[in-house]
Amino acid sequence: MMSPAPSRPSLQRASLLDLEPDLAQDLAPELHEALRRQTLVPSVALRPGLFDPEALGDGAVPRGFLVLHGMVVRDVRIAGGVASDLLGPGDILSVAEPEDVLVPVRTRWTSCSHARVALIDDGVLAVLERTPAIAGRLLLRAARQVGRLAVLRGVSQLPRVDQRLLALFWLLAERWGRVTPDGVVVPIAVTHETLGRMVGARRPTVSLALKELAREGSIARRRDGSWILDRSGLDRLEPPEMDMAPPDAALLPLGGAAA
């Protein structure tokens, strides 16, 4: 079966500081208006479906994009395996692959529901680089994004798939969750196959683990496709003390004598 055609974007131009006001929080008032005019970016509304980041602009390939709202799924394929992660508001992504990458990968992007992204080109990037107040805010976002990926990598190392799913859903709740009297609702409709790609498990195993989590009351799927989490499930994720041996690794000098 053929994959659906990539979604065709609808572009609007606006100041990045209007689209993301928190980036200007540390700016001196006298700089704000001038930088508003210098940071005009295409804001792209994505319909649900596949999209090509390199084709989002109005000619030149953007250097990267910033998710403004909605959700984007990135699938990364290495050999026969596929890993997926969900990207949301505030996440910053590079369009071009780094030149020093050795491991061959294929990347696919999908817009879920109606997402909107801001494209970052060379002109705006130059303004950001010489404006420490904005660059610092973007650096903080990137650091948080890297931190979330580190936690997700830790989730994939948990021995039980039900633990991995429980941790994953609480990670999703940190970004998209809504507190209700019955629990924390995660308004994300996601298939068991995609969940498996996020935690490193096969779809049948994910289905069995979700049934177990539902039986014990930790996670339940609602009729509208969203999920509701019970806070008691967090107790299962409490980590023990760091009592294992420290990593036994060292960076060896290049050009040393052969063994």
Describe the structure.
The protein is 32% helix and 27% strand. With 259 residues, the chain is α+β, with helices and mostly antiparallel strands. Strands 1, 2, 3, 4, 5, 6 and 7 form a 7-stranded antiparallel sheet that branches. Strands 8-9-11-10 form a 4-stranded antiparallel sheet. β8 and β9 (183-186) form a beta hairpin. α5 packs across α7 and α6 (192-199) packs across α7. It is globular, with a radius of gyration of 21 Å. It starts with 9 loop residues before the first strand and ends in a 30-residue tail after the last strand. It comes from uncultured Solirubrobacteraceae bacterium.
Topology:
Layout: E1 10-15, H1 16-19, H2 29-38, E2 40-46, E3 49-51, E4 64-78, E5 81-87, E6 92-94, E7 106-120, H3 122-129, H4 132-155, H5 161-176, E8 178-180, E9 183-186, H6 192-199, H7 203-216, E10 219-221, E11 227-229
Antiparallel strand pairs: 1-2, 2-7, 3-7, 4-5, 4-6, 4-7, 8-9, 9-11, 10-11
Compressed to H and E, one letter per element, the order equals EHHEEEEEEHHHEEHHEE
Q: What would you report as the Rg, rounded to the nearest angstrom?
A: 21 Å
Q: Stretches where pLDDT falls below 50 for ≥5 residues?
A: 1-5
User: Which percent band covers the strand fraction?
Assistant: 25-35%
Total of helices = 7
Which short descriptors sum up this protein?
Jelly Rolls; seven-stranded antiparallel β-sheet; four-stranded antiparallel β-sheet; 2 domains; HTH_CRP; disordered N terminus; 259 residues; HTH crp-type domain-containing protein; Arc Repressor Mutant, subunit A; alpha+beta
